[in-house]
């Protein structure tokens, strides 16, 4: 949008005065933030209204992305950048003597997600608007997002994330006109509906009010505004007699109170099922309502609506959609089922069996009696259809939805939809070969791959403005709107001046991080050191412990030979552990106690530093990632579905230390073997060990003195104040046979790290690698990923109105 600095200053001061009754000289950073947010709301609201009007008029098809998690982090700078006024606002603030950075930091992260899945959903919202597609999000308006992590005496402590705080969500708008009711519990029996049909009658159901709050999703430089709808719960006045006490009311408000902080194991909690059904039912009801305004037959709703199921969490969708079409609108089963399968599609984000939700039939039928009836009907008809097609009994049994008193949500999502995708090539192959092989056998046509992506605008222009200007200097600004122009940088990867520029801008980013580290942890780190970073959720399969074992090896190397040649390294960790994940929390304790040991050891000095940065989140990732030299992507091959931080590190010039897992493989394909450091077992090596059950970690421990010493360091008192955690880790590695093959991959990892140290010592070689990673990272833009979803899964065409990228 066209906006002059003068006009902006006028609008901003007016908003500050009128809406906040505050004047510049006394306003706090958060008052300035709210005023700025309200000022730009005035700029995009007309675009938003225009957008919805046009989509309705032109009957454009809309895709709805259902996710229990959305992790946008801060939205201010993205909204300013996408409106094309970031520089104007920065200039305006400079003229007003306002510190823009202070104001941006007044915004609380919108942390309504755990990790990769939630962040990907937020990225897709940005890319849908930027590519111009009509793609809307549907989720939950949690009062408390992912817990705030504090490290107390080395231990993770979880604190509520009161993100609404004093200013609430400045970006949201309550939409009363789309309120709907959602029913839980009670009993359902079928009665004669008169027209030879049966209809369900509910008795003593609990009826709750679903209230939508819409958050705008602005496209980059195209005036497109899509919608992220977050549902909140209220008690309908007409039912308040059923909730006489505050306790009763609070129990209801619990439904949207807090995000479940687990990112890999299904707790199976009733409230979680209610959360999943609440957002799914409310979303589908309003989708059908707005579709019917188009005056088209419900049987053909799939021509105008796609609903995407983000992992198993909203997988009740196909059954709920059937309930709405049949019970609420009287469609025939077959017409409803035909529409359902054409509307629904599903993405799997993990092969970990404990993460694939399976609800006990008793609990499910208790909470959702009618939906359960429909699931049983879907399941029976599926089994009948499969056996009619001659599918063998065992395959049918393995793919049924209801088995062993459990409702397998992934099975419902696959049977109830037309598409199943993995999030990286190796992951999709594993779904076909192993995790979902019986489904691949009966409906191979449903399976496809959609390799994840990232919003390059956030991780370059916003998180790394210095790097972005350096790229401008060498290849112009075209890459800012067409990321594929980044490839032009390949021409300069051996240009000494270019290398000097990119080295310098990385050093500046490292200094910015070093200042934050000193300020928050008191640890002083030198930017002469290699910044080696591992930031992601704490999980055994991501093998933060392998990183720790390497650090212990380096510790002994220095202690054995304090005068020896050593390239200084700073190991930086950021990771939250699910509160109930005890082993993960023990690893956090070990990392912090190892850090204390090393960081206070005179003899080691600056050679080695270990830092655990608390409360890792999106806004902290924006500070850490551009400052990294090494990106640790060391999961056991086959376990990390894709990873997305790997792509962010690549795009900001880090060199990846990687196993052949997830999207690491596709990063290698883009940069070539010489510009990445690969180690460890392949997926096939891992599966061979599973098949032969021949892995014996104690054997390696007994026969390899280096590994023996490193493993013993966990229990021999070298690392103080963590005896219990140390023996837990020793047991996991030796007694319980090292589930994630750390000892098997250790030597290969150490050799790879030594190789990396040599590469770093050769500045020209290193900068060739660093710049090659930046230049070829365009492959991983989520704009392209979302185009593939739109064209190959949702069959979306670009709306006839509005500009498109
Ligand atoms: C039921 C508890 C629960 C909650 C979240 C999840 C998510 C699927 C976990 C997750 O975030 N998976 C990550 O998804 C990313 C986006 O596709 C991938 O890049 C990561 O590899 C994958 O671990 C599983 C189980």
Structural overview:
The chain has 805 residues and is of the alpha/beta class. It has 3 domains: 1-58 and 79-108; 59-74 and 109-452 and 788-793, Glycogen Phosphorylase B (Rossmann fold); 525-780, 3-Layer(aba) Sandwich (Rossmann fold). 47% of the residues lie in helices and 15% in strands. It is built from 31 helices and 25 strands. The strands form 6 sheets. Strands 1, 4, 7, 8, 11, 12, 13, 14, 18 and 19 form a 10-stranded mixed beta sheet that branches. Strands 22-21-20-23-24-25 form a 6-stranded parallel beta sheet, sandwiched between helices. Strand 23 (630-633), helix 23 (645-651) and strand 24 form a beta-alpha-beta unit. Helix 1 (5-20) crosses helix 4 (86-96), helix 20 (544-560) packs across helix 27 and helix 26 (697-703) crosses helix 27 (705-712). 50% of the residues are buried. The model has no long low-confidence stretch (mean pLDDT 97). The structure holds the ligand CCc1ccc([C@H](C)CC(=O)N[C@@H]2O[C@H](CO)[C@@H](O)[C@H](O)[C@H]2O)cc1. The ligand CCc1ccc([C@H](C)CC(=O)N[C@@H]2O[C@H](CO)[C@@H](O)[C@H](O)[C@H]2O)cc1 binds next to helix 6. Its EC number is 2.4.1.1. The modification N6-(pyridoxal phosphate)lysine is found at residue 648.
